[in-house]
Design a protein that fits this description.
nine-stranded mixed sheet, alpha+beta, 2 domains, amino-acid biosynthesis, D-amino Acid Aminotransferase, Chain A, domain 1, single chain, BCAT-like_N, 26% helix, 8 helices, Aminotrans_IV, binds 2-OXO-4-methylpentanoic acid
Amino acid sequence: MPTASFAQLPNAQPTADIIRKDILANPGFGRYFSDHMAHIRWTLDADWHGHEVRPYGPLTLDPAAAVLHYGQEIFEGIKAYRHADGSVWTFRPEKNAERFRRSARRLALPELSDEDFIGSLKALLAQDHEWVPTPSSEADECSLYLRPFMIASETFLGVRPSHEVDYYVIASPAAAYFKGGVEPVSIWLSSNYKRAAAGGTGFAKCGGNYAASLAAQKEAEAHGCGQVAFLDAAENKWIEELGGMNLFFVFKDGRIVTPKLTGTILEGVTRDSVLTLARDAGLQPEERHISIDEWREGAASGEITEVFACGTAAVITPVGELVGEDERIRCQPSDNPVAKQIRRTLLDLQYGRAEDTHGWLTRLV
Ligand code: COI
């Protein structure tokens, strides 16, 4: 695929080498940003235009910009990985580009082509490749987290799709999303809140879904949990997903089950990859409804041996327990071998330590 032509406007005051190295040694998640950002503008009359990579910095938005009032916004999460030979790669970017277009359609935003989406990642990395951390060992899951997003920037308070839109990509060096790395996390079962309903925006990656999960996330934290699990809005029975990750259940007999996509669940790229890698590993993946009772009973009987969460930011993280108002659901103690094996296979692929048999990697630099 040809790279779209992006004007390069270099930052005249880039971060000093010594400061960048310090940041890359301990980046945390989402706290530091590289020196540039990619930008493309859309207007109703002129379509997409003005492709550029310019210095990272605050945006100038009119206080009446539509996004600030009606939340017409979508985003993506995708990572850049440094391989042992110094080259930089990303993982299944065409899946993110496709999901970005699905999200755009739902939020009445303009659709961006694969060429512009992947081209914007390449153009940004052409400037900021030094921001991609080098893993210190196979256990080090550092990367450059890329955050493409699109906002309604028209100055207009009427409620209708914006006639002016801006697309950006920013980049943030990242270590493990959860401080404990691969240590099991506790999850809070939200009974007060729902994330999505049929016909709503559950499948779209829009800021509103995450904003709506924050009150439940606060509840989770108040109960000592790192994430929140949501049940479906219609029956309050079926497991959907976490605030920002999909869920998998490993059964004793080799089945591995994830909630079926019904329009209320985010179609995770990691989720889709886990389904394939599980099949490669001889497990039987199933996409189907799974109820909270099945989780309770399966954990108690030992039928369900592991539960794990997955996402671009979190990779694969075992779930230690599900905590509800009056209960704690725990699988029998285990070292989470299936989660760890799939996680290892995925990371080996992403960091170029294993053969890319599915053709999932795209070189950025
Ligand atoms: C991702 O996994 O990339 C996400 O967008 C989720 C967010 C919780 C960081």
